Amino acid sequence: MGKVIHIVFSESAEVIFKYAINREKSIVGDKVISFYDNLSNGVIDNPINIDDRVNLLKERNEQYSYIHNNDIDKLKENYDKLYNKISKINDNDTIYLWYGQYDKEICGMIYVLHLLKDKSVNIYTVDVSDIIVRYSKSIILVKSPGGIAPENLDKYMKDARKIDSVEYQNSLNQWEILTKEKSVLRTYRNGKVESVSEDYFDKDILKFTDREYIKSIVVVGNIISNSEIGITDDYIFWRIIQLVNSGKINFKGNFGVIGEMDICISDEGLSYLSKYPKEMEYWNKIKQDLEKSKKFIDDIKNQGRMEERISIAKKLLDVLDIETIAEKTELTIDQIKNFYK
């Protein structure tokens, strides 16, 4: 009897699936295979040049302190494990490929399909971002398998879809095209993964960057939480570094350290963003919403101060003259006279 093998594309998903299979018993499975590399960015070859992929991480690690050295060490090891485990897959095994909205996961899935092309296995895909899980009083939407609770995986697995021969061949053709184009960035659009320019997402990053300084980690979080774009947090921060270098974003603090670097959009950045009316309109809306929120908070604070001044003035009515009370509380004489009525 063949094995049931789940393939995921992040460390967090790997942990969740192993726990679900070995402890929760919430889904059927014999093995979990994980692939970590983000093939949506950086030049890719056919076959993959692992040294080039490792060097890409090293180069970026020199520019900013977001990638840990152990991530670099783990990458080569992960490739070795991936190739070894896939080589042991038999024709009577069943494969489940789990992915979500992120370009990293979609590109990883296409690569794994390429590696499986010579095996006659049953392959199912589970796009978790396309599945709505309903409870009695709520619904759950996730962007990635790494965001699913282990006990809920069975609710997603029942919507697995078997990949047909035409779709499989399209994926193989896609991989061939992507590796020949030698692009440094790829994203899922128009129903397929396409090569795009390196600055393709810059407008989406800038539209979440305020005029006032804010922690870069907050900006990255806002982009991930509120945007439909499928890039990962490490790539967003790397592009922020490039936008600083090109003068479109200003910074203060510890350059290249996400938690210690404050950023704001520059005049040049606004000029660049103005070329994209939809994104510029969104930036203005965020700005207006922030101003309304700030005014609301200031009004509450001012109301509190006013009430405090009035309270003090009333206590001084029998002690000081009206002019002195007005001077000390910053109220008008007419306001204080009203307290006698």
Automatic annotation (TrEMBL):
Signal peptide range in chain numbering:
none
InterPro entries reported in the protein's UniProt record: DUF1835, DUF3658
In this protein, which residues make up the domain named DUF1835? 5-128
Can you tell which superkingdom this protein's organism belongs to? Bacteria
The record places domain DUF3658 at: 157-260
Q: What is this protein called?
A: DUF1835 domain-containing protein
What organism does the record attribute this protein to?
A: Gottschalkia purinilytica
Q: Source organism lineage?
A: Bacteria, Bacillati, Bacillota, Tissierellia, Tissierellales
